[in-house]
Amino acid sequence: MRLVYHSGYDLNLGTHVFPSTKFRMIRDRLVASGKFQEEDIHEPEIAAEAELLSVHSKEWIDALSYGTITMKEILKLEIPYSQKMVQGFKRMAGGTILATRFALEDGFSANLGGGFHHAFPAHGEGFCAIHDAAVAVRVLQKEGKIRKALFIDCDVHQGNGTAAIFADDPDVFTISLHQYHNYPFEKTLSSIDVHLPDNTGDDLYLSRLSEIYGHAVRAFSPDLIMYIAGADPYKDDQLGGLDLTMEGLEERDKIILSIARQYQIPAVITFAGGYARKLEDTVTIQSNTVLAAQELSQKI
């Protein structure tokens, strides 16, 4: 199983609640586990402008690239603007494109970053400037490598950007499993939205996931599964209000990845959110997701 990572994934956010230093820590944890070698980790190029424009408006990409972004847009984005931040988002978009190519060849892959599901075509919000996963799907569709993609979004926050981007596309099926009383407070309609009550624990969460996910995969029969593997349903997350344990999150990963393997559908992992009070907990949760895929990995 090949992974994708670049040191430029650190968005240079300082003491922000979004710990973009976690990407390096996850990479180091996976190598230290002995399950991955240095040669298993590949560095992506920055996504080309034409690739970004497959999802985003030129006005938005230009505003990011040339620093003409407005204060109102920065406030909506909720992270400080810098060219290092912009280059990091572009690099992670390139990373998800590369991870998707690897998954189509190998069955599973992970971009050790990305999953920025709140980015819309013409603006960013909720710490998300560029929707890397949507860009990857559009690029591979344009190349004829895939036609149908299914998003399974297990971040604690609804994938509103994903839902908006693919709202009128019958070839992309979007599932979001999230805390209802949480950001974004105005939800955008996904193909399936699972609105979970506050303090949902392992049993209810896994039951709802099992009810809808396998059926959707069988009915839709996608060429690719894009797994937005947020760590923030964890019970000790600063921005979440669900009550999942680490064991419950590991079971979530196994359900999603086992069904992908069962039906021989390539699957890509991206990380999205994770804001545990102890950064090491977020690193453990998201490393475990990759290790689950590695354990299940087989040639498809």
Model description:
The protein is an alpha/beta fold and 300 residues long. The protein is 42% helix and 12% strand. The chain contains ten helices and eight strands. The chain has helices spanning 22-32, 49-52, 58-66, 71-77, 83-106, 132-142, 160-165, 202-220, 246-262, 279-296, and strands spanning 2-4, 41-42, 108-111, 149-153, 172-179, 192-196, 224-228, 267-270. An eight-stranded parallel beta sheet has the order 2-1-3-8-7-4-5-6, sandwiched between helices. α7 (160-165) links the parallel β4 and β5 (172-179). α9 (246-262) packs parallel to α10. The longest helix is centred in the N-terminal third of the chain and has 24 residues, at 83-106. The chain is globular and about 45 Å long. The relative contact order is 0.16. The model has no long low-confidence stretch (mean pLDDT 97).
Could you name the key traits of this structure?
single chain; 300 residues; alpha/beta; eight-stranded parallel beta sheet; 8 strands; 42% helix
Q: What's this, in brief?
A:
The protein has 300 residues and is α/β, with parallel strands linked by helices.
